[in-house]
Amino acid sequence: MAEPFVNWSGSLRFTPGEYAQPGDEDEVRRLVLRAREDATTIRPVGSGHSSSPLVRTDGVLLGLDRMAGVIADGGDRATVWGGTKLAALGEGLYDAGLAMDNLGDVDYQSIAGATATGTHGTGFGFGNLSTQVTGVRLVTGTGELLDVSAERNPELLPAVRLSLGALGVVTRVTLDVQPRYELRRRAWCAHVDWTLDHLAELVHTNRNADFYWYPRSDLTQIRTMNRTDEAPGERTWSMGRVPGSDPWRAPREIKAGPTHRTIPQARDLRFEEIEYMLPAEAFAACFAEVRRRVRERHRRVAGWRVLVRTIAADDIWLSNAYGRPTVTIACLQNTSLPYEEYFRDVEAVFRQYGGRPHWGKKHWLTARELRPLYPRWDDFQELRRRLDPDGVFLAPDLARLLEEA
Ligand SMILES: Cc1cc2nc3c(=O)[nH]c(=O)nc-3n(C[C@H](O)[C@H](O)[C@H](O)COP(=O)(O)OP(=O)(O)OC[C@H]3O[C@@H](n4cnc5c(N)ncnc54)[C@H](O)[C@@H]3O)c2cc1C
């Protein structure tokens, strides 16, 4: 009997039939073919940082920890094993004089896992991490090795860049990279009204900008990042007072350094999270309603903060920024506190404003509700049935997400 699997936040627990840690692509192929023959399911797993049940299976849980590291780099491309953790990837690229364009808030995830769910950072000039993927090698449900890039099977690229582990096991990822550079991170506090009034300026004059809203105090922490080698676009806000709030502080530098050591943060306290991606134009009204509900209905339990970030539009079929500049709202809750009633209530608001859920965080949508949100949904499902005709990757939780009952 295998050991139970527990995700990072602790809210997803199950015991797979078997854990597999293949060491090369032939072994991945053999495992897929065996599962197909046994009519069982395989779920690829990265670092287990998702809290939606994407990896749950009573069949084989397949991790690529033994297939990690940079395979090749040159020019503006780097090919890496799917099991490479983002922290190690950042160091490996840095040693080669390279860097990723943008990153999310932490670097614990694997590259295949992070891109499988559209993990994102912040900045209207940057797509999610999946948009940095220019090529993928995967082992499909028939055990075939499939290469997808601008040169090979390019029509499949918008599907395989973000595929939830539903099209196959991603063994290699090729990334668009650039010469390494340094960033300066700053942070300061302001009343939420001030932040909302200045939001457009903040996101358009900084390379990266986001903010945390603290429901109990109505204060925000604003965070910006800019390249150290470029004239800073950011305005240095003068000291002052925001009416009706605590004194707010001028921006102070938190740290400066290479991208992979400046963007990701250490997260020791465990939390649950719901995050929805909204059309940018819907943000103001949606945030106002979330703020109202949190303060009126959930203030007692909402012990944590709410994070607002931006993402550029893309053309990836299952990307939650597909076709629209996006503003995201994420509600975080300490794992020792109840979250479901709070999250379900704000989810109703997010949905009212056309939001699409983060694939790797808490949400309660199934294929029936998801399909109308994604213009290329049917194309993805058709490809999935072609690459995995026997449903080797389609464990019950994934089936609820992708197949209409
Ligand atoms: C503390 C914390 C901070 C976070 N910060 C951010 C953030 O800033 N921005 C953001 O957008 N998200 C964030 N997330 C969410 C996180 O980035 C995603 O849930 C991500 O998918 C987790 O990656 P993972 O390697 O843990 O993959 P897992 O959670 O293990 O798996 C996620 C998906 O990837 C698939 N997968 C994994 N490996 C493979 C493979 N080799 N081939 C095919 N499919 C594969 C799995 O089947 C599953 O569908 C955060 C989560 C936590 C816990």
Beta-strand content estimate: 25-35%
Contiguous helical run count: 12
The value of Rg in angstroms is 21 Å
The best one-word shape is globular
The number of strands is 20
Q: What strand order characterises the main sheet?
A: 16-13-15-14-18-19-17-20
Helix content: 25-40%
What oligomeric assembly is this protein in? single chain
How can the largest sheet be summarized?
A: 8 strands, antiparallel
Class computed from helices, strands and strand pairing: alpha+beta
Spans where pLDDT lies below 50 across 5 or more residues: 235-247
State the end-to-end distance.
32 Å
Mean pLDDT: 93
What ligand species are in this complex?
flavin-adenine dinucleotide
State the main characteristics.
eight-stranded antiparallel β-sheet, binds flavin-adenine dinucleotide, 20 strands, 405 residues, 25% helix, alpha+beta, 27% strand
What's this entry about, in short?
The chain is of the alpha+beta class and 405 residues long. The protein has helices spanning 25-38, 86-95, 111-116, 157-160, 192-197, 199-205, 259-262, 283-298, 340-352, 367-370, 377-387, 396-402, and strands at 5-6, 13-14, 18-20, 42-45, 60-63, 70-74, 77-81, 98-99, 133-139, 145-149, 169-176, 178-179, 182-191, 208-214, 219-227, 252-258, 271-279, 306-311, 326-334, 356-357. Helix 8 packs antiparallel against helix 9.
